[in-house]
Amino acid sequence: MEVNLSLISLVIPDYDDAIKYYTEVFGFELIEDTLLSPIKRWVRVKPKGSGDTCLLLAKAKNQDQTSRIGNQAGGRVFLFLYSDDISRDMNLLISNGVEFARPLVQETWGKVVVLKDKYGNLWDLIEKTEAA
């Protein structure tokens, strides 16, 4: 069997706000925004130039889902971005107002910094060394 990871659902409070944030601040591209019902949309975004895996921006529909916004991984890093130039990407994110939760660290396998999106989700931004 051959399978691929296609979507990662990310619970958000508002579609338009999340689209604006991830496209303007993170520089992602909007892949799809399809109206499914008066209150539900199918919204996919992904980093420019990346593969087929997308974030599915899923609007919270009740208090239980709303309570998970920004904490889908129980306080752990939830999402991982690989960069070919971490300094460039950090500077862009800093200039766009992104909060960094932990400083840049040099590991044996590369560099990593933890950032926090506007909803509280933790992300690793990683630049691997050539040997890794």
Fold and architecture overview:
The mean pLDDT is 95. The chain folds into two domains: 1-69, Roll (2,3-Dihydroxybiphenyl 1,2-Dioxygenase, domain 1); 72-132, Signal recognition particle alu RNA binding heterodimer, srp9/1 (2-Layer Sandwich). The chain is globular, with a radius of gyration of 15 Å. The chain has 132 residues and is α/β, with parallel strands linked by helices. A four-stranded mixed β-sheet has the order 1-4-3-2, with helices on one face. The chain has helices at 15-25, 63-66, 86-95, and strands at 7-12, 28-35, 41-47, 54-59, 79-82, 99-107, 110-116, 122-128. A hairpin with a 2-residue loop joins β6 (99-107) and β7 (110-116). It is built from three helices and eight strands, in the order βαβββαβαβββ.
Give a quick set of tags describing it.
3 helices, four-stranded mixed β-sheet, Signal recognition particle alu RNA binding heterodimer, srp9/1, 2 domains, 2,3-Dihydroxybiphenyl 1,2-Dioxygenase, domain 1, 132 residues, alpha/beta, globular
